Amino acid sequence: MSTAKRRTVVVANARAAARRARAVGRRLAAGALLPAGVLAAALLNVPTAAAQQPATRDSAPPQPKRTPDVIYVPTPPEVVRQMLEVAHVNKNDVLYDLGSGDGRIVIEAARRFGARGIGIDINPERIREANANAKKAGVTGRVQFLEQDLFETDISKASVVTLYLLPSLNVKLRPTLFKLRPGTRIVSHDFDMGDWQADSTMHVDSETRGTSTVYYWLIPADVGGAWSLETQGGGASGSAERSALKLEQQYQRVTGSAESGGRTLAVTDGRLYGDQFVFSVADTVDGRAVTMRYSGRVAGNAMTGTVRAGAGAPRQWRAPRGQGGGSTGARPAAPAAVARGR
């Protein structure tokens, strides 16, 4: 650019700045208040913030930190209701939904049953959608949605866990689930847990998906190993009878033996319902077969309860865990994934 042209541009800019300054002066003289940024821009010939912002397109939606494990497919409302009902969700529960999507299970648990809920999803777009839905439902004070990897999330406070994943992912989650407190309720939409059989299974019809399956489990207590069984009034002259109880556990199913006085009796019909434990021991008394039916509660390394011999009166029993006791595989590491389509 020639010297003459540069001079012309400088003069034009100076004149424009002078006109803006005179306009500001007139407004100030009239008593008008101007934003500081506008005043400075007018006097110093600096563009305002609005002028500095270039025109941009709408920002792209946030992306997950890694590829989600499953494609998001909403659970029908009819199935949501059945999942919460079978788990007997109530106001004292803390429900974790792993792979929470738009938050519908967590929101319904809070809205209908007053439960507290935490939704876990790796997709930030789903988290944003879930928070918006919670606000519409008026339950933001009872729910929380976290953008996290469900395999790395601490769910130790859960009393209910809901799932809509794949069978292989359910199996991969089992070691985490087995660390939860006995009696914690697990509910899965459509997919099972491999060889860990559900405590109950039901079918639900919906308008959008046809027939769905709901699976329900209770986390079983760990009873595998050796226990010292003491039954009140079972010995001679009403003294306590002591037996060496050896139990083998596979999830909620239990078998084993009871050894006493040189005799070994089979433990049958063993079943865990959370921390509640029932089993039977078949014996012979005065030449006739008698089935001893035990029921009780497991609390860590101790069990207590009552036992009946046939139609007889109940008696108390207790069993501390014996030396060398411990799990015999009730809560194994994840086995090979079950291959099934979604």
What this model shows, in words?
It is a single chain. With 342 residues, the chain is an alpha+beta fold. It has three domains: 49 residues; 142 residues, Vaccinia Virus protein VP39 (Rossmann fold, 3-Layer(aba) Sandwich); 96 residues, Lipocalin, CATH 2.40.128.120. The protein contains seven helices and 15 strands. The strands form two sheets. Strands 8-9-10-11-12-13-14-15 form an eight-stranded antiparallel beta barrel. A seven-stranded mixed sheet has the order 3-2-1-4-5-7-6, with helices on one face. Helix 1 packs antiparallel against helix 2 and helix 4 packs across helix 5.
What is the percent of helical residues?
A: 10-25%
Estimate nothing, just give the exact number of structural domains: 3
Assign the CATH superfamily of the largest domain.
Vaccinia Virus protein VP39
Following the backbone from N to C, one meets helices and strands in this order, namely HHHHEHEHEEHEEEEEEEEEEE
Specify the overall morphology: elongated
Name the CATH architecture of the largest domain: 3-Layer(aba) Sandwich
Estimate what percentage of residues fall within beta strands. 25-35%
| DSSP summary, beta strand count | 15
Strand order in the sheet with the most strands: 8-9-10-11-12-13-14-15
Class inferred from helices and paired strands: alpha+beta
Evaluate the radius of gyration.
34 Å
Mean model confidence by pLDDT: 82
Distance between the termini: 69 Å
Looking at the structure, the CATH topology of the largest domain is: Rossmann fold
Quickly count the helices.
Answer: 7
Task: Identify low-pLDDT runs.
Answer: 2-12, 27-57, 332-342
What top-tier CATH class of the largest domain fits best? Alpha Beta
The biggest sheet amounts to: 8 strands, antiparallel, barrel
